[in-house]
Amino acid sequence: MPELNLLQAITSAIREEMRLDSKVVVLGEDVGHFGGVFRATQGLQEEFGEERVFDTPLSETGIIGTAIGMAIYGLKPVPEIQFADFIYPAFDQIVNELSKMRYRSAGCITCPMVIRTPFGGGIRGGHYHSQSPEAYFAHTAGVKVVIPSNPYDAKGLLTASLRDDNPVLFMEPKRLYRASRGEVPDKSYTIDLGTAATVRKGTDITVISYGAMVPLAIRAAEQAENEYGLSMEIIDLRTLIPYDVETVIHSVCKTGRAIVVHEAPKTCGFGAELAATISEKALVHLEAPVYRVTGFDTPFPYSHENHYLPTTGRIIQAAQNSLSF
Amino acid sequence: MLQVLNAEGLVQNGQSVPDLEPKEILELYRLMLLNRRIDERMIKLQRQGRIAFYVASIGEEASIIGSAAALEKTDWIVPCYRELGAALLRGFTLQEFCNQLFGNNQDTFKGRQMPNHYALPHLHYASVSSPVGTQIPHATGLALGAKLTGEKDISLVYFGDGSTSTGEFHAAANFAGSLNAPVIFLCRNNQWAISVPVDRQTANPSLASKAAAYGFEGVRVDGNDALAVYNATRDAAEYARQGNGPVFIEAYTYRLTGHSTSDDPRSYRDEEEVRLWEDRDPLKRLRLYLMSESHWNEKEDRALETEIKDAILSAIREAEAHGPPSIDTIFTDVFDEQPWNLREQQAELERSLDTMTIEQEA
Fold it and tell me: What global pTM score does this model have?
């Protein structure tokens, strides 16, 4: 089995699906001959031609709005938004049009498409190349939100997203694009949306995370085990909407403690949703409050991004707070 | 400005009437009259509190029905919210429309949207939403979809003068020009975006000239002249279908009533201006033309009026007789399958309704 990085796994997923399904069409800024600013679509125009992989004018509203029309026509568009930080001009198209189309037409019109966008910090990108805006979309009825944390999952989740009959926002942790490597089968395979992965078994505390925070949480767990004898269970959500509530609650009932880790700001972040749901469904099993280790409620800073982003130290501190509560 | 008929319904010198059978032009007239009488009746219904809201197209029927009639049935119509006439032309029935207005249990759209918001993909008529301009890029996408799959379909998108100020208009026109998409941008310049006149939307006195900025043709047509609108749209459709790219049509018209039933235009515009445009009524103009050509007479007109009135009243009666959709329609069609949180929320609502029923019975 070849070893790929996360970016190559994404390209592989799109390529395989384009070979199988002639309706899949890639569009966006720089995605054609250039292959995308991160090279996620490299080689696709060469293989599938300019009709199926094409550059658009520079407008996120136009990219998503056009993709909606293409989806209504029966194609399966895969628009790329170059950075999640640039998605806001398309916010109205995603929130008011794309995600409501099935509901408002009572199922007469569906708009299956996969919006791919790199997100998150750790690349010295400052305000406008580092944001994690997943909560805005998780709050919107009608769009699924999927976030992989490793190459194998990236291909399986993206293939499942491409075969899903709903709009999917596929957020790619760009910090892991080249940093995360692993074995990825050549052929297509899917990982069901809405299923989390327990990536590390543990007994003392449950850490729930997604994207680039998953490998960080794993490092924190290893350190906590070695230094403090702490046993952390780590859940990689993989899909935020709809998320795998059973796996989360089952784990929290077992450990009695939970920490949520994400890069996005704390207030109204996805961790708040998880904390509320855990309190509704597992309060009597909890030994301590649900702690959140997140970015701060500030714009994303440049020079101090390493202090803004969660660290192994903050995760371990949260675990100790929970245990000493 | 392209014009075939003058205000008295006479063919202008040197202008050609569309290559249509008299019965086809009569059908345009019938649809325009139907649209007008539906609008008038529904405004009354709203005033009586029987429906919550209504958006009429009084005064703009020619720009809507004249253009839709020039398309092939498989061409996509992408509506704003004022294009009932185009929907009727495609086969949306009066009964379906009334059910939607009442949001009853017969409503195809399950009572989810306020009046005038429907979606008819089986008729290649896309979904209505309230925000203006958002639908314009969808038309570019539909046209591109046809182009990429080698089909001959084109799309036509309706929007108002106000929408030309939106980013979506710019993006959609620019994408269509750049990607050579077969789309017709049909701007109903009815001169008012609620209370804001068109000269506050743009300093450019010609909306049609905006097309030049995107590298394609724009034409201005008398939007109250159904035959001129038909001709302009037919030419644009042929041009786009042959792979020449998009066309912008500015249909110069006037909104004779309020923006919606929530609006009172008397507070922001001159009654004299309204009277001027009443004299240019598109319905009257087409009727005079048909009568002058001896295709239609007063007696037939009275009979059609009666037939339309009866059909409208009957559809309203039927729609009003049905209750609201079942409560589960709140929770379906968000996704193809209902996720756990929606199942939980539906159960929660059902339990609370059961409790209320028990309390009321007690």
Answer: 0.97
